Amino acid sequence: LLTPGPFQAQPFLVAGTAGQDRAAARSGTNPLTLGQTCPGRCARRSRGLSTHGGAPLLQMGYANPEQVGGGLLSRLYSRAFIVADPQRSKRLVFVSADIGMVSQRLRLEVLQQLRSKYGGLYGQDNVILSGTHTHSGPGGYFQYTLFWITSKGLIRPALSSIVNGIVKSIDIAHENMKRGRLFINRGTVENSQINRSPFSYLKNPESERNRYSSNTDKEMVVLKMVDEDGHELGLISWFAVHPVSMNNSNHLVNSDNVGYASYLFEQEKNKGMLPGEGSFVAAFASSNLGDVSSNTRGPFCASTGESCDNPQSSCPVGGAAMCMAQGPGKDMFESTRIIGQNLYLKAKVKTCKPALGHSFAAGTIDGVGAFNFTQGSVEGDPFWDQIRDQLLGEPSNETKACHKPKPILFSTGEMTWPHPWHPDIVDVQIAAIGSLAILAVPGEFTTMSGRRLREAVKSEFDSHGTRGMNVVIAGLCNVYTHYITTYEEYQVQRYEAASTIYGPHTLSAYIQLYRGLAKAINATEELPRGPEPPLFNVTTLTLLPALGVESAPANKNFGDVLEEVRQEYREVRGEVAKVTFVGGNPRNSAENATEHNFLTVEKYSSISSSWRAVLNDASWDTRFYWSKGSRGQSNVTIEWHIPAGAEPGVYRLRYFGHYKKRLLLLGTVTVPFEGSSSAFHVAAP
Questions:
Q1: Of 475, 497, 522, which marks where a domain is finished?
Q2: Which distant-in-sequence residues (6+ apart) come within 8 Å of 34 by Cβ?
């Protein structure tokens, strides 16, 4: 584990939660909190749950229309940290949320709620919202048109669930302040990442590449928080890796490898607590992960097993669709565990109108695209260009010239119906806490672009007398603008370059802006706020069908058992207790119960003659699967993957759900129900 040296301590005020009730801890929308501060500075942190029910929302990240939510593997959390300097009345909020990215709409609605509650205390200047970039969370929380395509529009319940979860996590942090200290440390993480576009990386100048030992950033930065008595309150870890251990065939909502790292750390520190309970909060936040994959075995052809580590990521048989990255585990669940555990153990010039290139449609080795698109395309395809021109209009000559050598597939900056497809106003932000500078970047910086940005900002601080600053990139903050490559990487036009929507000089523009922010911080001067981003007058525009009335099979009720558990299991790895119930759509619970837990694993105590929940739906060893049938019927299967070393005894699996029912006078109502398996024994091997 990273252990900070005393010379790195920064005195701060700290806020921590003494505890929270179990209902709030297991809520799908409510956050938990904690924080910290010390003489002259204040900090506090909080954790919040922010899971939408999953089914049948499309998941956000791979842009795969077939990847709809079908159950729950782990909860999604909002983890909030507040640092304050009481002498100067300065505050900073940093939130790491288990979502794909922070959309502009999401940030604006969070700021609206904070303004209504706290006035000017928390606002645009001192709130950073960062997404972990899990590809297994819900979509539907964007106001720009492009993102509606794979999410079926702006889905109000999903957006509200995330907004409310983030705000609640900040609320709880706000209510808990302690004096304390902050520590900064760095360490190297091995065997957890590869560069998924090494051919692009090699286009960077050799002299620049020679300054680094690897084509990925292996350094982890940890900000640790303790109170005045030395009690640990929490930490934020920044490390550059894509949370794509769970691939695009997954249908279970989960926080992927970085979420598993948080889970392990919080379970260790909050002994005897269920996930989501306890005062210690650990956020494993995103950084410059743009070209960094967690699938460390690299890309292989699914059809032949041979490597497809080539500039086009294509296979001889089946083309790019057959090229998928693998590992390090035997399946995506084991890979998530391995990468998450690695992170946990170590922590212990002119820009263009936005446009996406042909290689954007090719996808990456972590999740391939559709049709015959390949990475590394620097020329258009007459067939697809003709379809684009007929359906969306031809890009202007100015935009084509500005984006060269990118062949434009979608000229999103020139597409305005029914709303703009991409933002043209982008937030840039730096927050300084003692010797730590957090660069809140609005997208996915590649390895080398992140290095250039950090060095430029550090140089700016050094040149103005603030030496020794620890500069860290917090990725996917405040508004999503896809990827940011170096100018050299842009020329290769792999996926990341095709997704650098503001053209080849995007990085140069960001470096200029962030240097200006660093200079202003050194001079303690106020900068003009700049243009305000639009908050479009749209609340819900979705193709997602409304929830309908549901029914149970003949002679069955909701919550009845369809397939029962066995009478006995052994506490050895590989044993799975499984039960199937007559179920209801999980969206009913997410949209009608603000604090809801879908399942528990309960152990019987012969001493008290009572059952006690030992695991819930946020526990990594539980799985919740929902499958939709016909005529308004559906099933729910709950699994407990019994770990080696589980305590022998009598257990049962319980299910908590809601279904929609039509009443003659009241119309459609939502009715809660529950079900339970038979008791079963877990015996020693």
A1: 522
A2: 15, 16, 17, 44, 45, 46, 47, 172, 173, 176, 233, 234, 279, 280, 281
